[in-house]
Specification:
alpha/beta, 139 residues, single chain, 7 strands, five-stranded parallel sheet
Length: 139
């Protein structure tokens, strides 16, 4: 078994969520990020974003209840899982962990919600869900 199914762009994720009724989007950022930065909005697809923090805040430790919280929100084995964080780092770790736990296929959304820092240390100018013009809302 591979570590995870691979990296996909936000636009590829949107297409998969639109065409596959079983596909699910999990935002693994923190509650503060959901509230203040925003959330992907997949309501027009008849779906909800699962919000399951990969790390605790403010400690930054891996959330020991990550899998249990994902299951509580409806995650089931065998469904395609698309994981999103700020820039694609935490979601990569979560994709690997869920794959190892028998879920998936699990995909990491490259570029995340806001993308990496640009040369002026700003996010949102190089990559990400928001930059690609996909629906989102303030938390």
């Amino acid at each position: 078994m591979s570590e995870y199914a691979g990296d996909v762009s936000p636009t590829e994720t949107w297409a998969a969520l639109k065409t596959d009724p079983a596909a699910v989007l999990i935002d693994v950022r923190t509650p503060a990020e959901w509230a203040y930065v925003g959330l992907p909005d997949v309501a027009s697809l008849g779906k909800l974003v699962l919000t399951v923090a990969w790390q605790t805040w403010p400690e930054g430790q891996q959330n020991p209840a990550f899998l249990a919280e994902a299951q509580e929100q409806g995650l089931k084995p065998g469904q395609p899982v698309y994981l999103l964080c700020r820039s694609g780092v935490r979601s990569l770790a979560a994709a690997k962990a869920l794959t190892q736990a028998g879920y998936g296929p699990c995909y990491n959304i490259a570029g995340g919600f806001e993308g990496p820092l640009d040369p002026t240390r700003h996010r949102g100018t190089l990559a990400g869900w928001k930059l690609e013009g996909l629906p989102w809302r303030q938390g």
